[in-house]
Amino acid sequence: MALFGGIEAGGTKFVCAVGTGPDDIRAEIRFPTTADAQETLGRAVAFFQEQEARQGRLDALGVASFGPVDPDPRSPTFGYITTTPKPGWAHTDVVGFLRQAFRIPVAFDTDVNGAALGEWRWGAAQGLDTFVYLTIGTGIGGGGMVNGALMHGLMHPEMGHMRLCHDRERDPFPGICPYHGDCWEGLASGPALQARWGQPGDALPPDHPAWSLEAHYIAQGVVNIVCVLSPQRVILGGGVMAVPGLLSQVRREVQALLNDYIQRPALTEAVEAYVVKPGLGGRAGVLGAIALAEGAWRAAV
Length: 301
Ligand code: ZN
Hints:
By secondary structure, the protein is an alpha/beta fold. The chain folds into two domains: 4-111, Nucleotidyltransferase, domain 5; 124-277, Nucleotidyltransferase, domain 5 (2-Layer Sandwich). Helices cover 36% and strands 20% of the residues. Strands 3-2-1-4-7 form a five-stranded mixed sheet, with helices on both faces. Strands 10-9-8-11-12 form a five-stranded mixed sheet, sandwiched between helices. It has a two-stranded antiparallel sheet with strand order 5-6. Strand 2 and strand 3 (24-32) form a beta hairpin. The chain starts with a strand and ends with a helix. Bound molecules: zinc ion (ZN). Residues 161, 177, 179-180, 183, 185-186 line the site of zinc ion. The site of zinc ion has 7 residues, from helix 4.
């Protein structure tokens, strides 16, 4: 039986695991993503080498990474983290570093496409061919599948930077995105909540006006995605979505904004099964990296 290594390469921490799926994670380690990319990647390599000594050879590695990244295998910079503002990480050849240490297939994609693949393989998107996975947290990101293939195209989706209707009378906050100001991430990420209200989201009580505004922005983004991609389900993960009551507010607001225009029972009658939490919870990222590895191994054998 094949054995895989997965790296959830987040902007603040790396999670590395060895195993074959949610019921078979044999070892796991997490450590901070420092400003020294070589040092951070070196820790991941050391972990997998140590695990190979204990458990035998790995058959493939999967990396689900913060970005922007280059996920196009035909591109000369395939496997790179590209123009990230994160200090020490711009133009880092992640796949090259790993291939030098392990002569095995290395799959590479965005953190959200990885999580989406994990949800498709073992979580809330099983059996679907067109769905979206969104994370609302330190940033806002989205990925998923269209007709059974992970979304790539020109590069990869940057759903968090879509523009929304911003009523400056209701919400004079200008937004925090360094590129766009009041894009979705600029208005509704965790750091935007903190900047607008002067305290972190988890310090704001459930009846604070922050949450109806937050639900409104999250729902606007979801409705835009529903109208563009026609997903069969939308999965909402990330730290901000853990706030009690927010998910049900988002569902109500999605229905209100669509105003019965899309006449499908998933939206008109069963929205709680349409806009959902990740089935794998906070494990979607690292399990997605394992699922990416599995895909690379299947493609190679
Ligand atoms: Zn932006």
